[in-house]
Amino acid sequence: MRNDTVLFSWLKPDLLQTVEGLELIARIVVEGFMTGASKSQTLGIGQTFHQYRSYEQGDDPRLLDWKMFARSEKFFVRLAEVETNLTIKFIVDTSRSMAYEEAGLQKFDLTKIMIAAFAYLAQKQRDAFGVYLINKEKVVSVPPRFEHQQFVRCLHALNNTIPENTWPDNHDIKDLINHQKREMIVFFSDLYDTSTISFIESIKLSLNEVVVFHILGEKELDLAFEGDLTFDDLESGQKVKVSPAAIRTAYVNKVNAWRDEVRGRLLNKGISYQEINMNTDISYLLRTYLQHRRARAV
Amino acid sequence: MISFANPLWLWGGLSMLIPLAIHFLSLGQSKLRPWGSTQFLEEGPMRKFRNFRLNEIHLLLLRCLMLIILTLFLAGTNVSCQDQRKNKWLLLTDDFPASPLIDSLSAAGWEVRWFDFGFPLAESTIRPDSVRDYFSLMRLIASTPAEEVVIYGPRPIEKFINSNHGLPRVRWISPPVKDEFFSLFKYEQGGKARVREGETTALYTAFQTIDDSAQDFQVSDTMYINIIYENNAQSEKRTLRTALEVIERFSHVKFVIRENTNALPCDWTFHLENDITPHNGKCIRRRECVSNPRLWSAPAEADLWCPVEQHVPTWIISRRLTVDQVLEDQFLYTMGRMLLPEYNLDYPDRRELPERFVQGEKNISAREKTVPLEIPLLVFFVAIGIFERIVSWKKGL
To answer: Chain B contacts of A100, Cβ < 8 Å?
Structure first.
């Protein structure tokens, strides 16, 4: 049972298909999550001057502008815009398998909600962020920027993309990786294609942080179906007729072995791995994201 | 044995083609489930596919079975089953001397009984001296627990076997008959004496007129016979008719038998009545010995056949006609000799069973009980229907 039932009831396809809807959901998710936890991000030491204000009791005396005091004999605190110290890149596997649906929600829909929420959070935290939507047919890029419009730009890109085709065999990663600046790459995929894992391994550098959100459906894990079914592979189109009850144990064992293998492989490379069940509470995902973000931002 | 009240409904069995067609047309199609990746489902697909197909075939068979049951129900299926009887009886009509047949059947476990009411065991009782009623006895056999019955005795006239249904398996075996030669009667016609003689052997029975100087009767292909009877003589009339049919069967003359009519032509008239109307033609009258002394008075121990007077072709039967009397060969021969100018019977071997009797045996041996299957079929149909739904639901088809 989901903890965020009220939110989940908002996740209707027609709402998810619009930028406004997605933004609304992101706001609900983030504001609800951050209530009582936010503090001004504009106050601090930075290179870009923002304004002076009178010293108030309780302000750190180290923030006093002594030159200003020399001129005016009054205490002023110098405020500067906090500089963006983190670039976040959301990379999404938009292959056809991300269209897998459970309870009316596709894996890609869940990804969109998560990116919208993360991006909104990033915007509030004055992080630069961008989105890369990748499949074999096309790559949609919204390079990271710290602008007010960036959030809407990302949502627009997400909404104009539908999962199709497969993951590219060899994707050119030179545009994705910045060797000069530390950044955080958040990757969303179901990792069914082994080349996806190779790709993730290739983008992991010592300078950056890579977080993988492995999205799996509840039924993909336990194959809890009654009766006989024909399973239609979304990417290859292959059809397999099986009696789920007859193969459930073997299937679950295989999937568990595969999950362990993927997790071990990524963790060995120093890549953060987070498995997401499509039933997972979104606030839990945000908490996970923030943990990684803080670790990187320090 | 299965029979149908409305066999036309059997064409409904063709409705089985519907699920078959659906099955074959929908091969390869089933409830489709989009899936992220089938890589973990692919191992051993043949086995799974086979399971899947097997499930579909199970359902197909159930559905076809339902249609078959429905068809059988609508066609009004009945099942005939034979009663299982174990006993075998050998019924003796008379106290025969030792016979190999009786000995061998006894040794084979057959119970030897008397062919009489109650069918008493022959070894423990003496032969009852009652007058047999063959029809009743044959019906009684049907109600006995005997599985197979052999009646050993003089073969009754075929006509009297009748087509009684529901009898167990009955065979009638006649013991060998001693050759016998007898003189029937002598009479005078046109001043010449004619003698009718009969001869009966194991192989045949024949009659002939031995008088070279005798004139032959005019032989006609058809003989018209009137039976005039009273209401209380119905049984006698039936017996007489049957006797006439037997005689007709063994002769070459066709009998046209009419009842209670004065229509002409008429060769012979049978009177089975008390008040005899004067008759000028040839006639046979049944009179009980002292019933009507006006016309004829005979002593109580008179012969069965009594002439009224010489040279008059009018005969009186001195007793009421019963089946037993008619079954006596003498009666039929005598009457046949009177009716027919040349009475030469094509008599079959008395030790063999006539073909018709064997056929009749088949009819009477099939003691069958017909059981309608409507309710069992209906219950079966509902049960299969529920089972089909459960299987369908379980399989998710």
So the answer is: 34-36
